[in-house]
């Protein structure tokens, strides 16, 4: 029975891909909701943002009415409900690092590849790692996919899902779901890494080089590939389009690129808390930068070249000194990982 479920889970992307050929999804649909979530982090000191929306005040802690909200602005705070949850993961452990992996509901093959490679919870000697995948509800195949996701969840116990639509413009909601889970269910974790599924991630080097478990955990710490003096794209032709109604400023505060970044556990909780007070934007990584600005926290520039936003050709010695490389498919990860983990000639210092 277990193996039949696994086979169905791994074959599903093929069927869904065929069904999705030629499909174009609308991004601004309304999400279902039920009971109101708790709001964590009361008492966090905030800075007044340098910008302000010309919409009605959000001081009552509820999302803007749909008539006042731009279609690209996900409703938040909002009573999203966990459909899949693992609330007891930290009951008997305090992980050094919580790994939050952004995934799409249908991509079982991608999740399988991450579990077998850089997302292996036992892959970092001397550091306790907890892996969780973040997903929403498929805009078209939500109901038939739900049973498959429930079976996958029963097998691996590593899926988090809330009842918002899983679209590109709702990526911010996925990250906030992960930070909500950490804040409520694993608040003592030392660090949180948020990563996209299509990356190569070297958690061992990240832990040894930057996080150093032998030292006290850093406070108010965030690093990755840092963007400075960038601004929203106003051209509707881009998928990264952000209109002035959603974000009026011409530049974003400094932020870390979305494919992978790391936060100290205390800062992850503060970002979730301050997000309850700020107008959401549809660019996830930029929004986290906005949260840091409101908190008065600066991003930390790490050693140059550790986080690569572009694809770098695989080389074992080179990759052993990198934290992240973007644009690696599940097939590529499964092919290179045995070589990367295996014995080989010593790399030059």
TrEMBL record:
Topology relative to the membrane: Single-pass type II membrane protein
Pfam families: B3GALT2_N (PF19341), Galactosyl_T (PF01762)
Predominant location: Golgi
Compartments (UniProt record): Golgi apparatus membrane
InterPro entries: B3GT2_N, Glyco_trans_31
Listed EC numbers: 2.4.1.-
Domain (Beta-1,3-galactosyltransferase 2 N-terminal): residue spans on this chain: 77-98
Alphabetical UniProt keywords: Glycosyltransferase, Golgi apparatus, Membrane, Signal, Signal-anchor, Transferase, Transmembrane, Transmembrane helix
Signal peptide stretch: 1-19
Coiled-coil regions listed in the entry: none
UniProt superkingdom: Eukaryota
Family: Belongs to the glycosyltransferase 31 family.
Name of this chain's protein: Hexosyltransferase
Originating species: Apteryx mantelli (North Island brown kiwi)
């Amino acid at each position: 029975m277990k193996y039949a479920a696994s086979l169905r889970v791994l074959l599903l992307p093929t069927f869904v891909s065929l069904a999705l050929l030629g499909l174009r999804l609308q991004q601004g649909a309304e999400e279902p909701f039920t009971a109101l979530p708790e709001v964590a982090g009361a008492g966090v000191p905030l800075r007044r943002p340098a910008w302000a929306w010309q919409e009605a005040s959000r001081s009552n802690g509820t999302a803007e009415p749909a008539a006042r909200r731009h279609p690209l602005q996900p409703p938040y705070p909002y009573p999203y409900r966990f459909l899949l949850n693992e609330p007891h993961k930290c009951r008997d452990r305090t992980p050094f690092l919580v790994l939050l992996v952004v995934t799409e509901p249908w991509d079982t093959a991608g999740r399988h590849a991450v579990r077998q490679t850089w997302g292996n919870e036992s892959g970092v000697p001397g550091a306790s790692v907890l892996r969780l995948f973040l997903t929403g509800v498929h805009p078209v195949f939500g109901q038939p996919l739900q049973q498959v996701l429930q079976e996958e969840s029963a097998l691996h116990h590593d899926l988090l899902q809330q009842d918002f639509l899983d679209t590109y413009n709702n990526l911010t909601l996925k990250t906030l779901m992960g930070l909500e889970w950490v804040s409520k269910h694993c608040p003592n974790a030392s660090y949180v890494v948020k990563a996209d599924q299509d990356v190569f991630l070297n958690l061992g080097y990240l832990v040894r080089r930057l996080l150093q478990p032998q030292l006290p955990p850093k406070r108010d710490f965030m690093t990755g590939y840092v963007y400075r003096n960038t601004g929203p794209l106003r051209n509707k032709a881009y998928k990264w389009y952000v209109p002035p109604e959603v974000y009026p400023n011409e530049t974003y505060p400094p932020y870390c690129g979305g494919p992978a970044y790391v936060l100290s556990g205390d800062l992850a909780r503060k970002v979730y808390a301050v997000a309850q007070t700020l107008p959401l934007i549809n660019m996830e990584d930029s929004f986290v930068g906005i949260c840091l600005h409101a908190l008065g926290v600066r991003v930390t520039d790490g050693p140059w070249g550790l986080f690569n936003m572009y694809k770098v050709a695989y080389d074992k010695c080179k990759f052993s000194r990198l934290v992240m490389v973007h644009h690696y498919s599940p097939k590529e990860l499964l092919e290179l990982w045995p070589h990367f983990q295996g014995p080989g000639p010593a790399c030059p210092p």
